[in-house]
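Minutes, project huddle
Topic: does the predicted pose make sense with adenosine-5'-triphosphate bound?
PN asked that the exact inputs be recorded in the minutes so nobody has to dig through chat later. Recorded below.
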Amino acid sequence: MLFLSQCINGLQLGSIYALVALGYSMVYGIIRLLNFAHGDVIMIGAYIALLTIGAGVNPALAVVLTILGCVFISVLIERVAYRPLRSAPRISLLITAIGISLLLQNLAQLLFSANTRPYPGAAIIPTKALRLGALSLSLSTIVTILVSVGAMTALHLLIQKTRIGKAMRAVSEDTGAAQLMGIDINKVISVTFAIGAALAGMGSVLFCCRYPIVNPNIGSMLGLKAFVAAVLGGIGSIPGAVVGGFAIGFAEVLVTALGFSAWTDAVVFVILIVVLLFKPAGLLGRGVAEKV
Amino acid sequence: MMLEVTNLNVFYDNIRALTDVSFSVEEGEIMTLIGANGAGKTTTLITLSGLKKAQSGTISFLGKDITKTTPQSRVAMGMSQSPEGRRVFPGLTVLENLEMGAYLRKDDISADMEKVFAYFPRLKERRKQSAGTLSGGEQQMLAMGRALMSRPKLMLLDEPSMGLSPLLVSEIFAIIRQLNEAGTTILLVEQNAAVALKLAHRAAVMETGRIVLSGTGEELSRSPAVQKAYLGG
Ligand SMILES: Nc1ncnc2c1ncn2[C@@H]1O[C@H](COP(=O)(O)OP(=O)(O)OP(=O)(O)O)[C@@H](O)[C@H]1O
Ligand SMILES: [Mg+2]
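Predicted holo structure (C-alpha cells), as shared on screen:
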C-alpha cells in the first residue's frame, strides 16, 4: 500500500513537471530557444493567485486570472524581448532569456519583498482526504492528476487535429517553408508561447497547492527541474516532455522514499548530466535536430 | 504584366547575391531562369516570396507593389512556391502537407485535393504516410502539389528536376506544361537548361547575381553563348 501511495505521489509531482516541461519543449521546438524565464512566469502566477485571493477574489476566478496573467506575461516577453532577436545568433537569445529570468525575480523582490509567504492552497483545493480502501488520497493529488491529464489530452488533440496545431508543427519543422504556405509565423509563435504559459499557469497553481509557500525564487528550481525533464524526454518533443516530467517526478519520490530527501535536487541534476553525456537527444528526441 | 521585378539588389550580410536584377513574367506564360551554381536563382525566388528582404529595387505583382509585404500576403494574392530541396514537412502526413498548402483558404479544399491526386496519383496512395518517408521524387510531387493547394495565379518552381531520374524529370515537366495550359503562370528556375528552355516561352540567364541574357526559350537555346555554357554544345 505504501508502494501504491508513493506511485500516486510520483504521478502527482510528475504531472506538474510535465505541464511545465511542455512549455519548455514547445518553445524550443518552435524557435530553438531554451526559455529560462519560463519558471519565473510560474512564480509570477503564484503571486497573482496569492494577491487576488488575499484581496477577496473568488478562488476559481483567481485561478483563471493566474493562467491569463501567465499567458499575458509570456506573450509580452516573446513580443518585446525575443522577437527582435529572431535572426540574431542563438546565444544572444539564450542570454536574453536568462536576463529576463533575473529581471522577473528581481522585479518580484522589489514589488513583493523577498519574504516567503504562505500560498492560499486550501482556498483553491480544499484539504480533504479520500479513502479508497486502505489507500488515502488527498483531493489535491486527484485534482492535479486529472487536470494535468486533461490538459495534456487537450494539447495533444490541438496539435494533431486543429489548423493552428498543424501550423505549429509545420513552423517547428521548417519555418521558411511554413511562411511559403502563408502561415503567419509571428502569430503561431505567439500562440505557442500562450499555450506553454497557460500550462505553466496551471502548473503554478497545482505546484503551489502541493508546496504552499511563495517567494521570488520558487520558479527557478521548478523551472530547472522541468527543463531537465524536457531534456530527458528530448527537447522539442511533446510526448518527450510528458515522459520526462513523469520520470523526474517518480525519481524524486523514489529518492525521498529511500530516505535521501536531502538529495532529490542533486539527483535531478545527475540525471541531466547523464542524459547529456550518453543520450543528448533525450529518450524520444529526433536525433540531432539542429536547424541551420 | 503578372510580375515585374525592377533593379533588385539583395545581400547576405555583406555578400552581394543579386545586382540590379530586372525581369518580368507575363500572364499565362512559362518563364525560366537558368544559370550555374550560385548564380542567384534561389535568392531571386525567395526574395519574390518575401523570405528574404531586398536592399533596393521593387517587385510588383498583379499591378501592386509587394516589395515590403509579408510572405503570407503574397500567398494570399496568388503567389506560391515549391522551394529548392522540396522542403516538405517531414513529420506531417501527405494530407497534412497539402492542407498546409491551403492554409489561407477558408473554402472547401477537397476538390483541389482531388485535382492534385489526379496530377500525382502516387500521392493519393501515400496520403496517410508521413512526408519524411517518401522518396525524393514523391517529395517533389508533394512540394508541387502543396504549392497548388493555394490556387496560385503564379507558381514559382525552384529546380523541380533536382536529383530525379530522367524518366521522372520528363513526367514532372509534362505536368508543369499541363498546369500552365490549365491557366497557371509559371516561373521556373532550373540548372537543367536543355529541358527548361524547351518548355519555356521566355527565358533569362543569370550569372553571379545578374541577368546577362534574355529572350524567348528558342532564341536562347540557339544562342552560342548559352549552348557553350549550359547546353554542353
Ligand atoms: N544563406 C546564405 N548566406 C550567405 N550567402 C548565401 C546564402 N545563400 C546563398 N548565398 C550566396 O548567394 C549567392 C547566390 O546563391 P543562390 O542560392 O541564390 O544561387 P542559385 O543560383 O540558386 O544556385 P544553385 O543552382 O546552386 O541552387 C551564392 O554566391 C551563395 O553563396
Ligand atoms: Mg538554387
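Observations noted during the meeting:
- Chain A has a mean pLDDT of 94.
- The radius of gyration of chain A is 19 Å.
No decisions taken; revisit at the next huddle.
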